Amino acid sequence: MSMGEQPLFEAVQDGNDETKDMEGVVEIQDTASANKVDDKSLRGEYTWVIEDWSQIKEPKKYSENFEIGTHLWRLLVCPQGMNAPGQLSVFLDSPEAAFAPANLNPTASFKLTIINQKTPGQGDYWKESSHKWSQTETDWGFSQCMLLAELHDPERGFIVNDTLKIKVEITVQRDERYYYDSRKETGYVGLKNQGATCYMNSLLQYLYHLPYFRKAVYHMPTSENDEPTTSLPLALQSLFYKLQYSRTPVSTKDLTKSFGWSTMDAFMQHDVQELNRVLCEKLEEKMKGTRVERVINELFEGHTLNYLECVAVDYKSSRRESFMDLQLDVKGCSDIYDSFDRYTQVEMMDGENQYKAEGYGLQDARKGVLFDQLPPVLQLQLKRFEYDFARDTMVKINDRYEFYDELDLDRGDGKYLSPQADRSVRNQYKLHSVLVHSGGVHGGHYYAYIRPDGKTWLKFDDTAVTIEDGSKALEEQFGGEDEPGGSPAGRLQGPVQEGEQQQQQPLAGTPLMPKQRLKFTKFSNAYMLVYVRLSDWPRYMAPVAKDGIAPYLLERLEAEQREKERRQKEKQEAHLYCHVRIATDADIAQQVGSSQWFDLVDYDQLPPSRTFRVRKLTRFSDFKQQVAAQLGVPEDAQRYWVWQQRQNKTYRPTSRLKPDEESAHIVDLREHREMGHTTAKHALMDLRLYLEIPWPPESPVQTPNRQEINLFFKYYDPQAESLKYVGHRYVLKSYKVCEIFPLMAKLAGLPLDTPLQAYEEVKWEPTVMICAIDPQFTLHQEAQLESGDIICFQKAVPDLPQAAAAAADDSSGLIKAAPESMDLDEEQQQQQTAQQAAQQQQDLQQQVQQQLAAAQNHPHAELLQCTFPRVPEFLSYIRSRRQVTFRRLEEPKEPGLQLELLREDSYDTVAAALAAKLGLPDPTHLRLTQHNAYSNMPQRTPMKFREKSSLQGMLQHAGHATDTLYYELLDMPLPQLEQLKSLRVHFHNDKTEFVGEHVVRLPRDACVGDVLAELGSRLGEEYKGRQLRLLEVYHSKIYKVGRDLLLLLPLEMVEFILNSDRGRQLRLLEVYHSKIYKVFEPSEEIANMDANYWLIRAEPVPPDEAVPLPPGHRLIHVYHNRSPKPDAAAAAAAAAAAANNNDAAAADGAAAPPATPANSGGGGFVSGSGGGGFVSGSGAAAGPLATFGDPFLLRIAPDETLGQVKARIQQKLGVAAAEFATWRAAFVSIRAAPEFLGDDEVLASRFAAADSQHAVAESNYLGLAHEDKGVRRPASSANRYTYERPVKIYN
């Protein structure tokens, strides 16, 4: 059903006062009462009854733990006083303050009372205090609470029947730094910042507080199968619902995931207006074909009338354009009305800028823009950023700019409105939102001031929501300068002195010179304003209740909200609970040999059924009932062990829970808690226990005694290369290791007489230590085994002959020939020594043969053929192995291939393994690049040959371990390549278009002259002596040109990209950010040329630009300047003007629209229309001047006009006439603002004479301003995998 048939909101009468009250007031009342903290939950009392008081001998006595105000407490009493003889000392203790983080430690006031048991409530003795408990102050109270003489006086009645009663009353005080409730204080909640999403948070808060827009979002159709992370409508619906009903700040992660954004996108700040346009365009697409199809247009769309009328003849032209927001000038405007005056300013087209009307010729004309229809919600972007020509960069305009609580666009008898505008609509607007940017052009912070009810201003700064005075939203966001002592917000670095007309205003304690005053620039100011028409306020700002949400959606959102509140409640009460994790033999058996190789169990991999969330005041006996119900283990069969971390960083179940511990509260077991964490998540209690039950289930129940130890057993099979857990057993300490071999064989399912070898697991880090155990050692005394130790055993493997290594090296038996000059005695002595060595070698070989024969007869001799015949070798391999992913450097996002390697593997081993996988015969033809752990992409610099000694070093980046490497296939060995200089040359054709890339490799110690000789020998006769001109380009500007440099391109490159340019000269340019930058002399070494930083560009030299040039001719630099996309009216009018000036027939006399911010977009060059295909004319340009694309050189003759030059440019670049008509040209100098030239002006007169035949970038160039339609390739100095990232919503 269309919006006209069934509107989202019914019309509201202006006289209805209830409907005029905005939604914010209603929400504050409802949500504040719903979220009000129950103060009773923060108060409580506890009475401690101490019996047998006179029998207490210990100096300190604690009460049991009790809970008040979501915190655990206990009382501490010192019967003989604490450093105060004759006094009773009483303290209130927080048992968890010693290890809890600061935000979880309590602050409370308390009252300690010694109860008079004879006259309760009348003769009591009490004292009060308050305190903030901390890790250093875990108890607080009174060391001199009461005289012991008074306490023991029978007449006073404090002790009756040897019983003392102490009562404590506690009131916990919340720390507002951690418990500020914006919903309670303001009725609204904020949005969490993901890193740099403050701009998005401000926009979302503004859109949410347009109830009509919010209700439209609620009615966008979604399905039950949609997920918020993939469905933009559902994500936005969920976000708005949470903003409306959640009690805590809302996350935007689901929304950004539905955008298709990655984590990196969340850390990239964008323009809030850009996101507003992109988001609304995407929502418009999603709303098509639904009942809310035209809501965005209904809210934000207005229309302007662009007109042109001749002064002396009856010729008029107009075009109606739509807009969703307006960009208003700030610079040169004192307030918002000045901006609207400039927006609708009439421009005269006369003199050289006359308009050529069809049938009338050149005529004086007026052109301008008026508003045909204004929208109900007026979005105004203030143009706070512009280009600084002197510094060649963008700057922020912090000038004072006033705007008002109400905006009257009917002022001046409707001077802003077109004659066709509906004058019955009162265009009186009320300020709704002010989006503020604080900072500079390179970064800053966004926040918003919003008035949901039209009365009260609220500041939305990410998660913080506060009520603010109206001056904060208006006057303090005007910008300008601030005096010392004024508002501290928005001050920039450094004072600025004003002239003598200002009065002196000295800082306190800092006298100033007379007639001087310091001021500070405020960098926080309004960037976007939102006004709502007063007559439409009741309709578009009417409250949205739950009945305004689609029923199926409401049910889903309410369920999600209940689940979120449940999780939040669990989080708030987390410090009252303990997570008890239980591991059994079945869990150990499941992990060992699959995910766990050393130790016994990884608690983080246990199934959820093994984790119990219990209150800390639960008795352990009650906990055992929960275990019995959930795991089916009877209470009397449960036997619990606690884990202990040993000095070698291993964990072992070393001792059982004592009977008194099993009867205590869970919190009393805090000495067994996991101490490895200090964060709030694990700070309070994470108890890990080993539950000993018969395993396998048919195993008998073991009853240990003090003479036994509990050992855990793993069995290793070398042939299967498997390790498995086979159980635990109690064995006598006095047993020898060989005496438990039958037990171990039985556990492994082996014959009882199987020869075994046993090893003890000692440590895993930094190196594996698995120690063999002598079978004749006693378990406890000699092998030093104790409860919790792990024995790995296997079938016995015969020992290799000890003499094998010596036999392998028989070099000692080789005798060198005696020199001819050697004496006879020396020769005889050497022969005797040789005979003795030969006999020793023969004896050694015989010994080896005997030992090998003995090994062959061993029952498990076949195990020697296994890859890892023994446990230590196998576990060392397990610890060293790494699963490494190799990806092609050109395809870093592809899955790649995987290899299993060892972290000790050398560079050569890794390269050889990869080459074998790829079928590459020579591993040196591979080049590897490390992984960047932060960007998740390759590092910019590849590894040198054998730069890293091991795989472990290759997989390290900034202290982070990775599992990815990238590879390239080279056409020559890497060591040889590293001795050469590689230059990547980009070739551009006659149209300056990028064609392809070619790699040229040269010796590193060569100079440019050597390059000429080397390339000349590789090219055919036809290309010898062809010129290459080398230029230095930077940011789309040519900085310097070499006239005498001759270079030759390789033949294969020329044949690929220059078939049509045979016999022509070529020139080589060095480019960085689209600017030709540097000259290379023939004697300069090429080692200084950074091909990764600069872009080397080659192009054919046009015949008319070949040196030497004719007298008076010169080459000028021509650069492209980025200009926003022109509107259709501007394009059509400029095309018509171009056609008229070229004597072409035009379909009608369409007029060029006025050069206002509406059609110029606020960027590029702004001037009148001079025909000839360019929107140009005399005068200075305003707006950004950002270069892009590929600059080029152009020859101009001494008497050539701009019109003639433009014709040659259009032909050179091959731009269509209709598109070229929207381009604008200017003479640009770095020392002054761009200046527009008429078509009949001689262009050479504008360029200063120079000694060379080329212009110099620092002096001047010809700028072409137009829309950037090209693919944005990364700069050569940038990471080759990063691109410019505009705001984009992918899903």
Automatic annotation (TrEMBL):
EC number: 3.4.19.12
Domain annotation USP: ranges: 189-534
Database matches in PROSITE patterns: MATH (PS50144), USP_1 (PS00972), USP_2 (PS00973), USP_3 (PS50235)
Composition bias type Low complexity, residue spans: 493-506
Keyword tags: Coiled coil, Hydrolase, Protease, Thiol protease, Ubl conjugation pathway
One Pfam family recorded for the sequence: UCH
This protein's record includes keyword Glycoprotein: no
Stretches of the chain forming a coiled coil according to its record: 824-858
Reactions catalysed according to its record: Thiol-dependent hydrolysis of ester, thioester, amide, peptide and isopeptide bonds formed by the C-terminal Gly of ubiquitin (a 76-residue protein attached to proteins as an intracellular targeting signal)
Annotated signal sequence range: none
InterPro entries cross-referenced by the UniProt entry: MATH/TRAF_dom, Papain-like_cys_pep_sf, Peptidase_C19, Peptidase_C19_UCH, TRAF-like, USP, USP7_ICP0-binding_dom, USP_C
CDD domains for the chain: MATH, peptidase_C19C
Annotated MATH domain residues: 43-170
Segments of this protein annotated with the region Disordered: 476-511
The keyword Protease is annotated on this UniProt entry: yes
Family membership noted in the UniProt record: Belongs to the peptidase C19 family.
Record-given protein name: ubiquitinyl hydrolase 1
Organism: Tetradesmus obliquus (Green alga)
